Amino acid sequence: MTIKRLLTVAFIAVAVMAVLVLAGCSSEPLVAEAGQVTCAGCHTDREMLKADLAANPLPVVEVAESSGEG
Amino acid sequence: MEADLGALVSIAFFDTTHGKMDCRDCHGGEKFAATRAEAHEGMEPRPSATYAESVCAPCHNEMTSTFATNMHADTAGCSSPTDALVLARSTNDEAVIQGLDNNCSTCHVSGCGDCHVSRPQFNDGGLVQGHVFYAEPNSSLNCMGCHGSRIQKEYTGAGESEKTVLKADVHWSPGGMQCVDCHTVEWMHGGEEYDNRYDSPAAPKCVDCHPADDTFLAIGMHSKHATPESNTYLQCQVCHAQDYNNCTACHVALDENDLPFYETESSEFDFNIGRNYAQDDSRPWDYIVVRHVPVAESTFDFYGEDALGNYDAVPTWKYATPHSIQRVTRQTQDGCSSCHGNRDIFLTEDDLAGLSDLERAANKDVVLTEVP
Predict the structure, then answer these.
(1) Any idea of the CA torsion for B357, B362, B363, B366, to the nearest 10 degrees?
(2) In Å, how far is B21's CA from the nearest CA of chain A?
(3) What is the pTM of this model?
(4) ipTM
């Protein structure tokens, strides 16, 4: 990567992050308010994911059976 | 991969550039929720699937803007006039394109994430490094997640042939070379348009790494058959590829619930040398190895009768670059006579026995009438 490209990427990244922060979309809270869940709270806790999946199994996606190799 | 493990985000992710963003910036969904169902309302599981319009675009413009020209983005490689697995044979384009859209697009990439975040969605996804974005796609988990029936089996030595014992490609073991060592970022991200999947200007040639120097030419077989000056010039794989996968008669259709499926009649590891029907500057050889592709006269019949009426337009034994390289193979192990006089390894009448007149006609430029 050329220096110019690197700087461009860095500049855009900083600008986008700034916009996001100003818009209130700062990074992800790990701990939730009582009675609520957060994305990061669930997705970083394997036991929680397991228990939740056991209680609410993922919907079965219907696919037709294919056979042989492509 | 178990669903819980596939969805598990590592703490390390939050220390990375992308992990500093809110999940919803990329995936949407609800900020305040009591249950998974509520949190996932309006959620987008594949945020990078729209490339130039995706959330990645503002920061990775250079990649998202060229990706549409990459063959991973659509089925152009099957339908372009020169590669022509399909469209050159078509007498009913509409029916065939419908079939391609329904049945063939599922294994194409569904976003940058298929190579940089998760296993391919084609394989049910699942985070590879706890959601950390990585620059180098993993050979086994990303590339071979889709390129399984040919490349993975050939490259890792997982295939089985009735005729010989197969080993991994030397570049994989002991070489340890990863897919991206040859399939570079310039190639995988697109930018240069080309019609045929073999025509990428970024594709390396064997001689880039193994030049025809004195050591190379000291090997008798090389000076006889492996230089442009040779009377008979053979593609390197003619001597160095082990048996590779060949598939027959794929049919595509929709089931009673309108869900697409395919059926291939058979697949088998074998090896065939054919005449080079596609000779040009980048493929100057007189003889090449050829692979049987699973397209049949009736492949698209579900979508329209006789949809591939021009079945004989291009060969069904196609130019191939098997990833099954060994120094010594069954066609060289006992010297020149392993190949000369060994009818089985050439594509001859024997291989066409029982095929339709159209398929015979399709391969007229490939098949040998006499073996050397």
Answers:
(1) 150
(2) 5
(3) 0.94
(4) 0.82
